[in-house]
């Protein structure tokens, strides 16, 4: 296992990340969700929603005490009383529960983006295996989460005591205080305690978020072999691609060689370079290169010219310049136009019939 981890040195590819996301594996901190929900709870309880809950519970308490003095006489009265005791607090708590759900969902979406993984929800037999469950329970990640939970409880307890410890005389004195001032004091201490604890939890959640993202990136790392295999799957076997490109070059070269039959002259080095030119005075402003090559390709061009009875002219400087400066299908450059024109004029003098067929005769 350690050797496999040591081999995984490459950053995860987009494909690997997408596969992990489809499985529901994303970098998220549950501590962030806890802090957001606790913050929403504190704000809700301090607002009119919290007042509504307190009012509903107070009504239930008064109704219960009244029922002791005058108990329901029939089953229908008892059912009505019980339904009232349940429905009123439930309706008061419902907006707060919806707020909690919205806060938890929003905190998750902000961390991971919208995510709905059917694969993560699918049934997996290994989840029912006691052996696999034991392995997950005693895995390094679970042990780390246990240590983190113990540390969090310890820190929260320490912070709570630092807030309440200095006010113990005030807390003890609440026993002799009227209910109104007592509730106000409890509310003040509760807010101070909640703010202190939430501040510490927020710092811990931020640290946990960075850790979870680091652990997620480490878990997604790939070995060099895995990266190569993915490239093969995406682009195909390198040998096959190389062979395909070679076939494309051969096909393009064959088309170029076949175009030599339409050329008017082939300039050679004489053996290293060959450039075939075509000129139609009616449709071209300048002679055009229809084929070029060196070495073996130059030999094939010369052979194709001989087979098609195309004039071959040895002009090493001009052949090299055209090969280096002009691509197949392009007209000759302006600075070489005069030299090419002289070669064509030479061909016309040798065979006036070609000049007539090319439309160059006077």
Overview of the molecule:
The chain is mainly alpha-helical and 362 residues long. The protein contains 16 helices and four strands. It has helices spanning 2-7, 14-22, 30-45, 48-69, 75-112, 118-121, 130-137, 140-164, 168-173, 179-220, 224-235, 238-258, 296-307, 316-325, 334-350, 352-357, and strands at 265-268, 273-278, 288-294, 312-314. α3 (30-45) packs antiparallel against α10 and α8 runs antiparallel to α10. The longest helix is centred in the middle third of the chain and has 42 residues, at 179-220.
The residue-averaged pLDDT reads: 78
> β content, as a range?
5-15%
Radius of gyration: 43 Å
Helix content: over 70%
Distance from N terminus to C terminus (CA atoms, Å) equals 87 Å
Can you write the helix and strand succession as a string?
Answer: HHHHHHHHHHHHEEEHEHHH
In spatial order, strands of the major sheet run 3-2-1-4
Instruction: Please tell me the total number of domains.
Output: 2
Q: Major sheet, described briefly?
A: 4 strands, mixed
């Amino acid at each position: 296992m350690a050797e496999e981890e040591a081999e995984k040195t490459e950053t995860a590819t987009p494909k690997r990340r997408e596969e992990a996301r489809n499985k529901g594996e994303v970098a998220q901190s549950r501590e962030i969700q806890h802090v957001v929900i606790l913050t929403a709870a504190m704000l809700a309880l301090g607002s009119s929603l919290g007042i509504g809950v307190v009012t509903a519970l107070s009504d239930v308490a008064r109704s219960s005490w009244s029922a002791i003095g005058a108990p329901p006489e029939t089953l229908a009265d008892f059912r009505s009383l019980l339904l009232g005791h349940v429905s009123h607090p439930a309706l008061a708590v419902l907006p707060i529960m919806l707020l909690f759900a919205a806060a938890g969902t929003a905190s998750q979406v902000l961390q991971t983006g919208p995510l709905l993984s059917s694969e993560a929800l699918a049934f997996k037999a290994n989840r029912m295996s006691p052996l696999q469950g034991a392995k997950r329970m005693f895995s390094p990640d679970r042990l780390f989460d246990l240590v983190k939970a113990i540390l969090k409880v310890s820190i929260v307890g320490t912070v709570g005591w630092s807030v309440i410890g200095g006010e113990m005389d005030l807390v003890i004195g609440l026993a002799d205080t009227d209910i109104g001032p007592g509730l106000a004091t409890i509310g003040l201490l509760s807010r101070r305690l909640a703010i202190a604890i939430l501040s510490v939890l927020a710092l811990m959640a931020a640290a946990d978020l960075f850790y979870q993202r680091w652990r997620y990136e480490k878990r997604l790392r790939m070995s060099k072999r895995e990266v190569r295999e993915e490239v093969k799957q995406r682009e195909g076997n390198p040998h096959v691609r190389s062979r395909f490109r070679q076939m494309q070059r051969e096909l393009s070269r064959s088309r170029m060689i076949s175009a030599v039959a339409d050329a008017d002259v082939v300039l050679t080095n004489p053996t290293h370079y060959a450039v075939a030119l075509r000129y139609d005075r009616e449709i071209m402003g300048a002679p055009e290169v229809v084929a070029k090559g060196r070495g073996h390709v130059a030999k094939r061009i010369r052979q194709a010219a001989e087979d098609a009875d195309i004039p071959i002219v040895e002009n090493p400087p001009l052949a090299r310049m055209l090969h280096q400066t002009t691509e197949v299908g392009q007209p000759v450059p302006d600075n070489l136009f005069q030299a090419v024109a002289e070669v064509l004029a030479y061909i016309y003098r040798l065979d006036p019939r070609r000049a007539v067929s090319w439309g160059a005769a006077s």
